[in-house]
Design brief:
Spore Coat Polysaccharide Biosynthesis Protein SpsA, Chain A, alpha/beta, single chain, 13% strand, seven-stranded mixed beta sheet
Length: 357
């Protein structure tokens, strides 16, 4: 690991997001510096204010004037936890970056033990031995961890706990985009994609006693679900990333949904206008193929033929495949293969063209 000091120890940056944390800032800074003040590897405390409405930014600025190792970054308006953490990670200069919260969620005297276990090939994440956050937060936390385990194959106990020690080299190779609380899972995904070992460090959790948490608000939960959707949609189309467990289902599921949507439109108009059913299913097949590849496109083809035969031709329900279906099947298969080939050639030529999300 690279080093910027005479002891050849990895240097440390601490990143803390702030939003209306005026009650916590004095204790946060004093607790961190009590532990790290004499540590020669400790470079900086990066405070990122996310458009606070109280005296958070002013208090942080005063502290930064008195202590050169404190840096203050500001968002003019509130952008969300993910954007705030991304700002801090991008600005931090240490070989290791510790991200935590302003409400002192764990005993900072354990930070040296975290540093002892860290290296360039390892992400250290804190996991709570206790909860102490009330039944509503317990249910939300357990549900979110279960959802992430199902979708992304995580085998960790506490994804969103605000204690993560990340190598600077790993941050440099990440492409983080979350604006909200999905940022923790995105950091884990980014490190896992790079082959880093994810090590859990058990910690006693100190529930918040000052200020107010916003993580259980409905808007935050909706934001997390939206970020999950965006992440799955974006990475399912990438050729340079390994497929996640949910993305195989995701890619083929989108093809199924597109065919069902085409069937619904066709059924609505079938009684009033004469048309070829292929006109409705062709866009569904082509869009699915272009966005998600040959396999989902061929599945859409098969489902389209099935939908046409079962619901748009007489008899209504029995599925019978006859000679009349062959031209339709041939057209869809050929267009699916051609669309895949065109997209592959454009990518190979460095001129990838994607339809807008």
């Amino acid at each position: 690991m690279s080093s910027n000091n005479s002891n050849s120890q990895p240097t440390l940056s601490v990143v803390v997001p702030l939003y209306n944390e005026e009650e916590n800032i004095p204790l946060l800074v004093s607790s961190l510096f009590d532990v790290l003040f004499t540590n020669q590897s400790f470079l900086e405390l990066v405070l990122v204010d996310d458009g606070s409405h109280d005296r958070t930014a002013a208090m942080a600025a005063e502290l930064a004037e008195r202590e050169p190792r404190i840096r203050l970054l500001r968002h003019e308006c509130n952008r969300g936890l993910g954007a705030t953490i991304r700002t801090g990670l991008e600005a931090a200069v240490g070989d290791l970056i510790l991200y935590t919260d302003a409400d002192l969620p764990f005993d900072f005297r354990l930070i040296p033990q975290l540093l002892e276990r860290a290296n360039d090939d390892r992400l250290i994440i804190g996991c709570r031995l206790n909860r102490g956050e009330g039944p509503r937060r317990w249910v939300l936390t357990k549900g979110y961890n279960l959802l992430c385990r199902m979708l992304f194959g995580f085998r960790v106990h506490d994804i969103n706990f605000a204690c993560k020690l990340i190598p600077r080299s790993a941050v440099n190779r990440m492409r983080l985009s979350s604006e909200g609380s999905f940022i923790d899972a995105e950091i884990l995904l980014g490190c896992r994609r790079q082959g880093l070992e994810i090590v859990e460090f058990p910690l006693i959790y100190f529930p918040r006693t000052r200020g107010h948490s916003t993580l259980s608000r409905p808007a935050v939960i909706i934001g997390i679900l939206h970020d999950i959707y965006q992440y799955l949609n974006r990475t399912a189309q990438s050729d340079d990333q390994p497929m996640l467990p949910a993305q195989h289902i995701w890619r083929y599921g989108i093809g199924t949904i597109s065919v069902l949507a085409a069937l619904l439109v066709a059924l609505l108009l079938h009684q009033f206008f004469p048309f070829s059913p292929l006109l409705f299913f062709l866009p569904a097949v082509l869009l699915t193929t272009w966005k998600f590849g040959r396999g989902p496109g061929l599945l859409s083809t098969a489902l389209s033929i099935f939908a046409i035969d079962c619901f748009l031709r007489s008899p209504a329900l029995p599925f019978t495949f006859g000679l009349g279906d062959l031209p339709r099947l041939g057209i869809l298969v050929l267009l699916t293969l051609a669309t895949t080939e065109i997209k592959w050639r454009l990518r190979a030529a460095g001129r990838t063209v994607d339809l807008p999300d």
